[in-house]
Amino acid sequence: MNVFRFYAPGDVRLEDAPEPQVGPGEVKLRVRACSMCGTDVKISTAGHQRIVPPRIMGHEIAGEVVEVGEGVDGWVPGDRVQVIAAIPCGTCDFCTAGAMTICPNQVSMGYDFEGGFAPYTIVPKEVLAVDGLNRIPENVSFAEASVAEPFACAINAQEIVDVHEGDDVVVVGSGPIGCLHVRLARARGAKRVVLVELSRSRLDLASAVVNPDLAVCSAEEDPIEAVKAFFDGKGATVVITAAASGAAQEQGLLMLAPQGRISFFGGLPKDKPTITLDSNLVHYKELTIVGANGSSPAHNRQALAYIADGSVPVADLITHRLPLDQIVEGIEIVRSGAGIKVTVEP
């Protein structure tokens, strides 16, 4: 079978590999959809400290059970499933306290285990141990289910920053995760949602799909002034920075109304992780700054439920569906921002 493997920064290969065999405590899947994100682009060009090559990439996985290993109960061939990407240990103090997203022993599909850019993959026992193999609702396609993993990360962030009824929300960054944040904020009761993006073409592409109440191109106007003017001079109650940008974090703080909350959702580059922050602004306006790191197995189930009941549609966010032999083209689409979500169907 053909697989897409990482060997070294800049060295990724579509090559032949033997079909994997299921072991005790494992489940073998026929991968039906594995979506891409910006992390896949970063890995292909710069690698990742946790990946020991060669490694089959892809962590947003949905597929069909084809075989179960010895000792596995509850799953049979033909079951339609979605796989968590970030796998907590389930036993440490953080996990047992309900904080699985910050598990210090976390491992991941496509990093520590073979990923989904292949016709077949193995769900390791570590996933099953934390209830991380999720049944796909009947009315949800494999492609939609593959979007549940990044969507789960958005759910975690909005739970932490507490987006709720009546909030005025700003989402900075109009990639797929930014689009998910816009729709999720509305599903959680936000009154108005503004989308801010540096690239005019990306903003127009996203806005045509998710229809924010206001779309602001920060390359063409001052986003802080635009946001404050739209929110009656007060600013936003919530800002979510869905971009790996220090400038977005700095500007986001200035967009907040008194007692506003900001989620630093997008992590910053490892070589440029600091920003300039006026702590008096936080002090006198009683602002709240929170982070968000990944998702838990429960968040993945919540994501599938939101998709199934129509609260947060995702099918129209998938602008490109590609066979595995066009995966390099898919990486370039993600890199260039020419699409919203790219899904590989091996």
Automatic annotation (TrEMBL):
Its cofactor is Zn(2+). Keywords: Metal-binding, Oxidoreductase, Zinc. Pfam families: ADH_N (PF08240), ADH_zinc_N (PF00107). Residues 10-344 form the Enoyl reductase (ER) domain. CDD domains: iditol_2_DH_like. One of its GO terms (molecular function) is zinc ion binding. PROSITE patterns: ADH_ZINC. It comes from the Bacteria. SUPFAM superfamilies: GroES-like, NAD(P)-binding Rossmann-fold domains. The keyword Cytoplasm does not apply. Belongs to the zinc-containing alcohol dehydrogenase family. This is Alcohol dehydrogenase.
